[in-house]
Sequence to fold (463 residues):
Amino acid sequence: MSPVDPCLMLLYFAATFVWAARRARQDKGDDAKVDYLLAGRRLTLPAFVASMVSSYYGGVLGVGEYSFKYGLSNWLVFGLPYYLSAALFAVFLAGRARQAQALTLPEQIRANYGPGPGLIASAIVFATSLPAAYLVALSVLIQVVFGVPLLAAMIAAIAFAVLTIWRAGFRAVVRSNALQFALMFGGFLVTLPLLASEYGTLDFLTANTPASHWTWNGGRPLQSILVWYFIALSTLVEPLFYQRCFAAKSPRVARLGLFASIGCWITFDFLSTFTGIYARALLTDLPIERAAEAYPLMAQRFLPAGLCGLFFISMAATVLSTLDGGLFVSASTLGRDLLGRTRRFQARILWATRLGLIASALLSLTLAWLSQSVVALWHGLGSISTTTLLLPVLGAFLPRLKMSPRGATVHMALVFTLTSAWVILLNLNGAPPLGVEPIFVGLGLGILIWIADRLFGRFNATL
Fold:
């Protein structure tokens, strides 16, 4: 890489810190708590969209890998299912979330079902929000650009995130997200037209990539595509979504903001998918098992000095926004919903959340260093959180779907236990028991418990 490129990256990190970490006006009492956790519930539509779009798109290197391997199907596999789920969230949940009095998702569970389900939800949200996978991705980018050891890159990245958020809390996350939003689009908007003008458009791509890259499924079996439409249901229990809806200025901002975010994701998926296809056409010597390196290698080999640095900044911005978002969700869950329930921290939520920042950072760093197990842990915890939380969360916002407090407790305890056991057996055996994915087992049990709870409630009502 040209010496210009690392200098641009340093400038990017400095600008992010200066822009995001400055302290806002100091609120007092409960206002200070709401300001630190939710930016005073005053997010305007542009701020909501920028924060939502950037914080929920951290897997940019995975997008490059999948596009390199399977082409256009990236749009249908990692895009369309999540657009549909986000649209459902916008229609049925976004406005209700803004009207709720809760400051966190576990607090809403606790208010509707009691302390037991609230405690389970807090533990799950805390664990699944730890941004270990995104810390790995950002650290790899730092390692490539600056040539430092991976552990040093991890420590620097997580320390940077903590220091950026420390003073202003969620307001710092939102400010950072606004900058990352502009940069994540900027790098790809410059790179893709340059590649097209330099090497050609569709004729070049179709001539230099497999024919399966231009099919809807990328040559993959139907079942491997359909499973993502169920995994995308995790959007309906995604703490990042609820946090931003809680923080929106009004229910209308939350609803419109999500629809606008979907439009931005569609646009960015177009840019990132075709950039990944260009990487496949240009990197003819890159083995398929190293497809995760497609974006960085393409930038180093085929982009000029300065633009290479800009593209790395674009990737880093996409990852850092999700790293910041996940770290703060995890920290606020620990501070507000776990430590904040104890007598010692009940009146000191800000400091409990800052303590949560340190704890979340250390746990994320530990998981990231054990990077060989991060991906399996990430997918396993995602299955557990979706199956355990989906029906209770929907019921907490949609009264017609609400379970009884006892039903919610039984649901969360049994579904958590069964799905966790299924995930453990999958990891031990290398394949799911009976050939059924954990998410299907957990959702099936959860639906049965929900039906039993509804029937039992109706039976009692007739007595």
